[in-house]
Amino acid sequence: MPKLILLFFLIFIITGVVAQERAVTPEATVVSSPGIPTAQAKSIDGLSRYINAHYRTPQEKVQALYSWLTSNVVYDVYALTNMPQYYEKQALISQTLTTKKAFCQGYAEVFNEVCAKIGVPSYLVTGFVIPKGSSKPVSHAWCAALLNGKWYLFDPTWGAGFVENGKFVSRINTRYFMAPPAKMIQTHIPFDPLWQFSTQPLTYQEFISSRTGLAKPTVAKPKPLFSYRDSLAVYAASSHKAQLVSTIRRISAHKAIPPVVLDHLNHTKKNLAINNQNETVDLYNEAVSSFNVGIDQLNQFIGYRNNRFQPAKSEQELKQMTQHCADKFSETKRLLQQIKPGDNTNLFLSLQNMKAMVEKALLQVESQRMFVDHYFKTPVKQRPALFYKQALAERN
After folding, report:
1. CB 80 within 8 A of CB 11
2. Which residues, if any, are the signal sequence (predicted)?
3. Which one, 30, 64, 285, 396, has least CB within 10 Å?
4. By the 8 A CB rule, do 378 and 371 touch?
5. Angle value at C-alpha 385, between 380 and 390, nearest 5 degrees
6. Burial class, 306, CB count within 10 angstroms (exposed 0-12 / middle 13-18 / buried 19+)
């Protein structure tokens, strides 16, 4: 029986945020930038090793990282209107460190990756801002990190300077370093309310109204408390798929969803669909692999039988050989039963074909089991004839 050829599906999971932010002009607070050697500043590992070697506490390490980013990476104004909608994460990080230019996602990805290397729990946060002098929400990216048992927010993009008259103005400041969530929500609102780190998260409309001066004087209705600490603990322990599902659920719970959020929500749903497709492909390939192992074992048994069970094995050993084959084909059946092809016609047909092949293989295993039973019940002198009869029966 020929083996199945493993099917490999290459699916690029690309996530990104269209960032067209124009940073507000904050009060400048100059901070010293660590003199990280150029050679070490070209990679996440190099940056992390230097920071770990020269700074002691987590807060000192994060401050050195923030200071280096805001001092050495300039905002890529060209990317403001010409950047691709989607990107590959590691390629963006490499580009940021090589060119020392970035848009918000580049700053945030580098910050988040280095935090992981220096042992600081962190998350990349995506949301939107309303630039000064504008009423249009635009996507943005920043980071959250856990320091001294508390969650703080960091925006190295706005910490590096601002855009004025189409040009980037470098003006390093610490206004967006270790910003308390209650302060950061004045200018930045995450797409997912989880990253507000608040028991009373703002709605998108409340944020927009507060930023555009359109808030109406109304009596505030009490909101149900949001247990973000419990939700964060569940999120941290969840699989990537479960994280996507919970994010979609929290965003969709808003009564009014602005276009900038809807774009992100749809993109997240696409990522979930890709994740599901990848899981299905992985499951199918695992089933194919299990089937191929079973076929190998079955072929080895048949080859050994064709050699008239030489060198000799006990009845128990022969039965174990056939049982191993059966176990692999049963495992294949179990995996195939978990696959939901949906409206994928090609996958549906492949599943039907695989299931038929598994059933045929199981019948062959059962035939070999029966032969082993018959073989040991037959007098020794009559056994050689059994091999000829079995081979003849299989050919017919």
Report:
1. no
2. 1-19
3. 396
4. no
5. 120
6. exposed
What digits encode the pLDDT tens for the residues 243-273?
999 999 999 999 999 999 999 999 999 999 9
Rounded to whole angstroms, how far apart are CA atoms 58 and 56? 7
Whole-model pTM: value is 0.80
Residue 318 Cα distances to 109, 167, 295, 392, angstroms: 57, 78, 16, 21
Residue 160: C-alpha distances to residues 27, 95, 126, 188 (Å): 12, 18, 18, 16
Residue extents of the structural domains in the chain: 40-216+223-258, 276-395
pLDDT per residue over 89-133, tens digit each? Answer: 899 999 999 999 999 999 999 999 999 999 999 999 999 999 877
